[in-house]
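Supplementary Note 2. Why include the ligand at all?

Several targets in our set were suspected to adopt different conformations when bound, so apo predictions alone were not considered sufficient. For every target with a known small-molecule partner we therefore ran a joint prediction. The input for coenzyme A is given below.
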Amino acid sequence: MSYGRYGRPALKNSVDVQLQTAFTDGNWNTVIRLADKRFKTLKDPYYEAIKIAAESQLDGTIERCTALIAIDELVKSKAVPDYDTVELLEWAARDYLYDTEYAETLGPLRARWVKANPKSKFSVKCLQSCLEYWDLVSAQQIATTLDKAFANSGDRQYMFWSITLTYLLSISPQCSEASKKVYSLLVVKQLERAADITENSEKVESKDRGLLQEEEISLYYRVMLSHGSKEDFVSRMESSKLGPLAQLKEGRKDLFYQALNAYESWSEWDRIYDLCRQALRLGLDGATPTFSVCDYKVWKKFALAASKSRDQETALAEVQSILKEFIALKTNTAMYKKNIALTLLDTAFHQPTAPGSSGNESGLTPRVIQIGLYLDSYFDKLSAFDDVKDFVAELGFEEVKGLMEEVLPKMLEEKSEKSSQVILKSLICKLRYLLTTCTQTLSHNPSVVDGQEHDKPYQCRLCSALITLPCESCLRSVVAEAAQIYQQIVDDSELLAAIPRLDKDPRIDLALVMGNSILKLSGLRPRTSDVAPAPLRDVNPSLFLQAVLVLDTQLKVTPGDVALRLLLAQLYLLLGCASYAYQIWTPLDVKRTIQDSLSPLFFDRISSLSPGLFTGTRPLMEPLRSYYNNSLHSSCPLRIWDAFGSGSYSSILEMTEFDSKLRRSCTLMMSIVEERRATRAFGGKIECEIGDLALTDNIDDTTILLNKTDYGSFVNLESPQGPPIQEFLRIGPELSNERAHLSFLAEQYLDLIHHKPPKDHRPYKPSEASIKERAYTFETLSQLNNSLTSFIHRPTTPAALTSPEATYYTVVSLLSAAVLTALSSTRADPYPAETMSVLTSSIRTAFTGLRTRFTSSSTSSSSPGVDETFYSLSDMHTLSYVRETALAMRHSAAFVQAWNDRELARDRSGKSTLHKDGLAEMKALDAMAAKTVTEVKGHIQKLKEALGQGGWLDKMLDWTFGGEKGEKEEDEKVRKAVEDVVGGREGAEEWVGKVVESWGQGVKGWGLVKME
Amino acid sequence: MANFRQFRPDDLNKFSKCNLDPFTETYELGFYLQYHAKWPSLFQVAEDQHGNIIGYIMGKLESSPDYYKFSEHYLPWHAHITAVTVAPEARRLGIGKMLTEQLEAAADANDAWFVDLFVRSTNHKAIQFYKSMGYSIFRTVKDYYGDHSSDPTKSSRILRHAQAHEERRQEGARSGKWREVRGGPE
Ligand SMILES: CC(C)(COP(=O)(O)OP(=O)(O)OC[C@H]1O[C@@H](n2cnc3c(N)ncnc32)[C@H](O)[C@@H]1OP(=O)(O)O)[C@@H](O)C(=O)NCCC(=O)NCCS
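The joint prediction is reproduced in token form.
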């Protein structure tokens, strides 16, 4: 059947022109009249279907259902339906047909039709339709029918459609556990049979039912890996036809990788060693393109496998020998040369003689020498630091000294060009920073020295200072050193002119080193649990501001640098300058597909930091919303039919999995929840309950929501032994399954207590309606309470939340229980006094904790330098959760009260009204919350006034540069270095203006937030 | 350091090193998936040791619809490079070249007559890059990027590279099945 205008199916040719025209023009009333007439005269049920299809285009609810009823009847009749009728009815019902309904009605109808007409050209259309509704059961049946019908036709496609769909079904929730087993066995058998045909025939022709194309063999590998036994897989990989080596000769690299990864997952090192060795030999002999084998991954696995070999020495010698042969190849591109150089470095670290970190010997071990050789060739490449970082972090202390004190200074001496010198120097700075994050530079220090106790548990072996972690004295010298090189570049016009020709502007690296070092000196640490204080609470504000200033100054010079932007956007969020952070974020142009992995970097928790951002002209979450709506609008994975049509079986499997992951994205949940919170904050109307959104349709408590945040573009100078940089920069723990679920459940709770029946809603039988509503409310509250409690008590949850979040979710969970208890105790029942008082007092305790954290922050004596405003502005997150929690309490109390009032109105006897003690307890919570909300309002007002006062320029400059008075000597060294780079206090004035303005905008936004 | 392999949809979550660079366009999900679905061997990536994508190439195989057959713009069966990008930190190591060569090999395996692509005439780096691999300017098109201006910097160039199957194109020309296209100012 072809499709006409507006996607309307074309009617059968036999239909007369008058009816055709009416249908094409969408004159539904005419169509109904004409079709009815034709049906009566011709008795052809097709005309009835046309009539029904036209009726379903009309507005009335009953008319809309007629198509569904007609479909049901066809299903029940067990007869083979007319194809065009099915098409017509499917089209008619398209807008209100759920996928599950499809799988019970149209899917089986189509499968029934195909069974009767397997060779019809419309069969494939039936398969496509089932896939559009992701009805895998019917789709698999159709594909199997097609495969049987065309088994001898040479059209291999049907066979592999059938196999692929059987496999998809065997891993799909649409299939019962028992059927999953059956389908798993079936698909393995089918592929084994196909593989055996290939193995046993001289040459597979396309009419045979063997494996031929790469995609077919890939499907075979994947299915065997997932459903077969390890032994079977391993033995089948030995095949001289379908095994990975044979396939590699055909240039089929993906299969080679699949085998290699499988072996790795089973720690089959000898097999890895053999496979890599043979593959690389194929590359050397020209039997496969080097492209297929020269990846770093192959080399790395090869070297690692050799180091695990029983005969390690011989195996490693073989690695070396193959490496040498590759080095001798003339055709190596720069990339392969680099891969080989890195492998040489890697093998040095696998040598059995490599000294451990104990090293008393000289530091110039082969490992250090290899690092030196590598850097000598690649020091000026952007990736040089990343390439050697993990190796350097693994060196023993003596080796570190050998590298830093002998190898690198010597290399520096040998560089004659000025630009090479500064590049190498800035690389050395980065390495020095890295070493402050490595434990081998520390030794434990006795807690009593010269009879005196002290609180420095370590001694830095590089500078001998007694320290707590990290070594501040080293960090300070790194800052000074970096600033000095920076100055050298800025003062040298020759160097400045050379910068555009370099791989990277060394000033960016130097600014990053300075920024990172000063952040560490400021005391910024990862906040990875719910007991951590507010982000900047225990940070030295001057140093923090200096770090931001240095980085901001650099961004002005090199606005195109992505890493700087990402870092600064995070830092400004920490500082409470969300609007400025947004200005920095926007040019990164995170849009469309990359939003899922990148927008959390800016938008996570944004409504708690600066709801004002949501009042801009363009809805803040619109791009995310439209991305998810576009990508997930149907339950069928996007573009999957294209993959069927092209025989890309591995793509089908990957796209299906990707689709399932995208539906479970933490970012998706984040975008919905952040937007709802902001909408509520400004008193907007929430259109749809969160649980009713199509995007949350398949999410229940057992769904594992995935965090896919991509930190790949951060410059991470930290050693692999410690947390990566992003953990220092976030307001709190990253997105997680736990937090996403809690936020989803809390929103559902709010939906319930905010639910108001439409004003004109007059139930036909009020008392029956009331019983139903009551049952629904009790059921929902009890489910929500169970779910919330279970998520809160998971051992992994505390590490997934900030402290204010933990309180909020705890309180919401307790509230759901308290409300349920209050509603279930009517005046007529005995009152569960103890339960209720435990609940409300737990709520009070939790809330008081949060409130204290908030109020103490608004009154406590400030640390030297800055006043309390600084801390308040950088901790709007706590304020936000005080407000959210208080409002949840107030609204819960109001919900209980309204319930009681309704019961009173309904049943004048008063028997069904709530127990007065329950009401009173809820009221008390309300009073407590109301008082706190007033405090929140006052707090915002105070901030507004503080920001409205003059003198901010001087004040901020004093905060930043420490006001000199009482400054510690060591801090002075850092401050001077910063002043040099940013051009002194004057150089910082514009920046101060931006920071203060952004604070002002944030507070202005808060001023608009509803407090009731 | 790099590994080369076929694109997988999960790679989209690791695109930042390439796609945060302003010269690289980010498309809707369906666009990437369409390429992965239809021409998986023409969508290749390079990844670093952390799984970040540091380069990728997307291409397709196509010919003009039959009704163009007698138009001078008719294109026979060929491969088209839709996008190629390498992360700044991994440039000038030959990654772009290897990705392109891999696509050309896949195009050959699919009997493509030539490979072509569009590039903004202001993207000198990219033009240098293609020229170094033997591509030449075939035609200059105004307003390809749809900004409706007569600004010459907004025009774009079609570059082409003959494939092993090019000789068939010559044959085709001789036997009159298709006319040689010579278009554009260059
Ligand atoms: C164009 C681009 C893909 C090149 O990738 P690459 O991996 O750096 O290129 P290669 O290292 O493979 O370069 C191969 C050859 O191309 C030429 N070339 C590449 N980049 C060049 C540049 N910036 N200037 C001059 N020639 C260049 C050189 O001849 C080079 O060989 P050589 O290094 O031995 O001299 C990359 O610069 C990029 O991603 N740019 C941004 C995105 C873009 O513009 N894409 C093209 C849109 S159609």
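The longest helix of chain B spans residues 95-109. The pocket of coenzyme A is lined by residues B 23-24, 84-86, 91-97, 119, 123, 125-126, 128-129, 132 (CB under 6 Å). Comparable summaries for the other entries are listed in the accompanying table.
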